[in-house]
Amino acid sequence: MAIDPVLLTQELVRCPSVTPVDAGAQAVMTAALEQMNFTVHRLIFGTETPNPVHNFFAHLSRQGSTVLNSAAHSSPLADSSINGEEGAAKIGPRLCFMGHTDVVPTGRLSDWTTPPFDAAIEGDRLIGRGSADMKGANAAFVAAVSRFLLRYPDWNGTISLAITGDEEGVAAHGTVKIVEWMRDHDHIPDAALVGEPSNPQFMGQIVRVGRRGSWCGKLIVEGKQGHSAYPELADNPAHKIVTLLHQLLQQKFDNGTEFFKPSDVVVTSIDIGNEATNVIPARAQALINIRFNDHWTGPSLEQHVRSIFDETKIPYELYGWCNAESFMTNDAMWRKLVADAVQEVSQIRPVFDTGGGTSDARFIAPYCPVVEYGLINATIHQINECVFLNDLETLTQTYFVILKKFFSVGD
Ligand SMILES: [Zn+2]
């Protein structure tokens, strides 16, 4: 029996897995996968912290009949977990689906038309926290795999899933660590598919092929406190930080690149904390966030920011950190395969895009080509987050066609 993506989405949404709590969400997925003979590695990271994170890596390998007939392989077809332990020889193409089971907080419960973890179906949609971001996509992929295994029992290769419970939070003990584990246990795939909701209004619109990076900086200017009637006796950091930030915002960092829009510089906070109009403060601080394209790396961007500040000759301290490097999937074959599958199901040619914030796709990007395709993101993180039942079916079919094309089976 193939798995129903709507029922599985409901089962997942009913686990209140507000990050980093798991609330049984991953067990719902692993139970379905183990029924299909997947080998599941439960990976709990951050055990030294108050909030350990549940993750899992599941994989299923199968040899087609031709490989089975060769002398080198004698395992019966029924033993599908031939890749069950580390270091197994590669026997066909390897595809990994990546996602998360954690969700953002609900907001005020009374604002929801139905309770956020009831997964109620109202008319043509399923309402619930995480339904679109991204339990629906998790369910669609598992459902697609079940259809694929029933329809094409002789496929050849490896299907894996890397699922984290720490995407919406700090993301320190999630995909970044799963990918390290995959690398150390020879489970890096040939291609990765991230099921984050990629479509703004309707299915078939956008396949994400990269993301901008994110750099953050804390700028501090020290001065000398004094009476505002005697500014010559003080040294005003408020004026100086305004000059520094003005210089930064004046600059055009780049004109965008082939697949990316220009980098954006955003001052997110200016903090002095001075309530007195007759006191010149001693210290001023600002926070900066730069969303950067593939013209830059975190270090080259920080170097550039410092050179802009240095030109002003104003003494400053800058503490910079790179949350995420940008990445771009240039692998034309993998991009085309996914776009072809989307078009086959949705009758629209999707656009390749690099918009949105950062995503966990960046962690696998250094190892293999990765694209992102999922549900509609119009209601994610909102009150009454929802998914259309039709879209769950469309996504399941799309993932099914991706599997079919990736493993070169069927017509
Ligand atoms: Zn998400």
Question: How does the SSE layout of this entry go?
Answer:
Layout (H helix, E strand, L loop, with lengths): L4 H9 L11 H11 L3 E7 L7 E10 L2 H5 L24 E7 L20 E2 L2 E3 L3 H21 L5 E8 L10 H10 L6 E4 L11 E3 L1 E2 L1 E10 L3 E2 L9 H14 L13 E8 L7 E2 L2 E10 L5 H14 L5 E8 L2 E2 L3 H15 L4 E3 L7 H4 L5 E3 L13 E3 H18 L5
Parallel strand pairs: 3-6, 3-7, 7-18, 8-17
Antiparallel strand pairs: 1-2, 2-6, 4-5, 5-19, 9-16, 10-14, 10-15, 11-13, 12-14
Helix pairs in contact: 1-2, 1-4, 4-10, 8-10
The site of zinc ion (ZN) has 5 residues, from helix 4.
What level of helicity do the residues show? 25-40%
Number of domains: 2
Spatial gap, N to C terminus: 23 Å
Largest sheet, in brief, is:
6 strands, mixed
- For the biggest β-sheet, the strand order reads 1-2-6-3-7-18
Computed Rg: 25 Å
Poorly predicted spans: 66-88
The fraction of residues in strands falls at: 15-25%
Total beta-strand segments: 19
What is the CATH architecture annotation of the largest domain?
3-Layer(aba) Sandwich
Coarse shape: elongated
Structural class: alpha+beta
- Ligands (ions, cofactors included): zinc ion
Query: For the record, what is the CATH homologous superfamily label of the largest domain?
Result: Zn peptidases
Secondary-structure element order, N to C = HHEEHEEEHEHEEEEEHEEEHEEHEHEEH
For the record, what CATH class of the largest domain applies? Alpha Beta
- In the CATH hierarchy, the third-tier topology of the largest domain is known as Aminopeptidase
